Every structure is written in C-alpha cells, then in structure tokens.
Amino acid sequence: MSIVVRPFGPADAEGYALVRRAALPFLLVTAESVAFHFAEAHPDMHYRPLVAVRNGEVIGTAQVGVAHEASRPGQGFANVHVHPDHRGLGAGTLLSRAAEEHLVEVGAEAAYAWVVDEPGHRAFAERRGYRPGRSARFLRLDLAALPAPLPLPDGVELRTAEDFADDPRPVFDLDAGCAADEPGDVDAGFADYAQWLRETWNHPLLNRELTTIAVVDGEPVAFTAARTDGTARYLTGMTGTARAHRGRGLASLVKSDSLHRARAAGLTEAFTGNDAGNAPMLAVNARLGYADCGGEVRCVRELG
After folding, report:
1. Is the domain of 177 the same as that of 263?
2. What is the pLDDT of residues 264-295, one digit of tens each?
3. Is 187 in a helix, a strand, or coil?
4. How confident is the prediction for the chain on average, in pLDDT?
5. What pLDDT sits at residue 70?
6. CA-to-CA distance for 113 and 104, rounded, in angstroms?
7. Residue of 63, 43, 52 whose CA lies nearest to 88
8. Residue after which a domain boundary falls, among 108, 133, 168
9. Do 218 and 173 have their domain in common?
10. 98 and 241 both lie in a single domain
11. pLDDT value of position 246
12. What's the start-to-end Cα distance of the chain, in Å?
C-alpha cells in the first residue's frame, strides 16, 4: 500500500517514539515525551511534527519547526527518521518534502537537519541538496565499569535539582549561561524563564533526583541534567559550568556524582552526546569511561 505523510496527532505518540528509538538507539524517547514536546512547543517555533504511515503503521517521523530564539531569524529545522525495517520505500523523501514545504510557508530561509553519520544517510541528504557541516558524537558507558567517584574540592557542595524545587530560578540562570556557549550552527541562547519551566524543568524525562548541581557560596556553578525513561538507561541532557568556574574539573565532578547515584539506583547503561569540536566535554566523558557508539552530521539546505 502507499505511504501517507500527515501531521502528527496525539494518537501517533507511541508509533512516533518507536521509530525514533529504532533510528537513534542512543537517545531516550517515550510516547509521553513525544506528546509533551508537541503540547508544550512555543507558538513562535511553528512546530509541526510529521508522520509517514503505511498500512496503518507509523514508519517514519519528522521534527519540523523554527529556531525561534536564535538571534538570526529564519533558521528552520527538519530532522527526518525512518524505521530501519521500512527504508527504501520513499518515506524519507515524502517526509523531507513535506517538512521543507512547511518551513517555507512559515518564512524559514534555511533547513538544518541532523543526519545519521552513515554513508546511506549522508548520501540521501546530499541528493536533497543538503550540505554537510559540523558533526556530533554519541557515547555510551556501561555503568558497571564507571571509575571511582571524584574527590569533592574544598568549598564545593553537591546538591540535586530536587533541592531547588521551591525556586528553580538559579538553575535556569546557570543553564541559560551555559547554553549560550554551546557549539552549534544556530545559537542556542534563551531567556524565557516561564518557557524553560515548562519545557525543561517539567520535562517528563528529567530526573531531578539524579541531576547533580555543584554549589559554591550558595550559588549553582555547574550541573549535569539526568534523563531517565523508566528502564535501566540514563541519558545526559546537558552538562555545563559557569564561565567563572571553568577549568576546575566541576563538569567531571557533577557527571561522576550523578552517574554513581544512577548506578546505585539500579541503572546499568548511560548515554551522552557531544559536538565533535567540544574538546573539553569529550575529555570529561573519556575520563569517565564513555566510548563512541555513533554520530550525526549537521546538514543545511537553503530554502526559497
């Protein structure tokens, strides 16, 4: 039967999550997190996830929208994935075409796409006119092989995100400052506290008990955000250190603490991702025992 591409609906959440997990096994995706992103997306993002359906089954997905907080307007994104069992049927082409049409309709001038760093995926993107740019690596850690905990420096206290439940604003300030320095094609700065509360602090996969925050003189200065999905798997959502406190090993400290507490809680496998040019974080993860397990390439196509 033919493949139909249409906008995502709440009933598609489980199928959407299944495709994403099959295509990107190093990420944590659940039906709940898919529905959450759809419901909480900022109106200015023009977020329009798409599904490709064949014989009543979701076989492909597309995350489509605009980077509304970027300093330069018109930067869209279109991340397309097809279930490995259904590739070669044309679903990727149909999803890409529909995604780009939506971006043009909302005024985007460029479409950025994360493409799995494998020859077939890269060739598909290049045939559609996407130019490869920066790359990112995914890393995996068997928590049974986690190195010993790192010593706590003088003057540094470790807390969890749950300790800030009554007033998360200091955590937001730290996260916003770190995000502004993240490597990327589109700047990732943000300043909307209310939106951060909805999208980040209340994210269904965020595990506040396993999220570690380093505090100096009562001020959060480094953190690692832990995500869990109810299985034995763990994903680092973000790790960052305030500019004034970098170079002290605090990123390694908070990640080590969070991972050790994750292992104590019964988790067995940890994943994280890094921009390939982010040498400091790659060094942190190597120190903790992470090993490469895959990658993506950031590609871009001009629209018009």
Report:
1. yes
2. 999 999 999 999 989 999 999 999 999 999 99
3. coil
4. 95
5. 80
6. 15
7. 52
8. 108
9. yes
10. no
11. 93
12. 32
Q: Which residues of the chain have pLDDT under 50?
A: none
For residue 183, give the CATH number of its domain.
Answer: 3.40.630.30
The whole-model pTM stands at 0.93
CB 251 within 8 A of CB 243: no
Tell me if 261 is assigned to some domain.
yes
Task: Tell me if 124 is assigned to some domain.
Answer: no
Please, how many CA atoms are within 13 Å of residue 234, restricted to the half-sphere of its CB? 28
The pLDDT > 70 percentage for the chain reads 97
Q: What is the pLDDT of residues 174-214, one digit of tens each?
A: 999 998 877 665 555 577 899 999 999 999 999 999 999 99
Residues 99, 180 share a domain = no
Instruction: Give the total number of structural domains in the chain.
Output: 2
Inside any domain, residue 300? no
Strand, helix or coil for residue 200: helix
Q: Dmax of the chain from CA atoms?
A: 66
Q: Do 20 and 146 share a domain, yes or no?
A: no
- Structure tokens of 175? 């996260």
Going by C-alpha positions, the residue among 104, 103, 102, 130 that lies closest to residue 116 is 130
pLDDT value of residue 188: 54
Confidence at residue 27, expressed as pLDDT on a 0 to 100 scale: 95
Beta-bridged to residue 270, according to DSSP, are 141, 234
Answer yes or no: do 57 and 153 share one domain: no
- Helix (H/G/I), strand (E/B), else coil: 144: helix
In angstroms, the CA 36 to CA 278 distance is: 29
**22: domain range?**
4-108
The two structure tokens encoding residue 119 = 């020859």
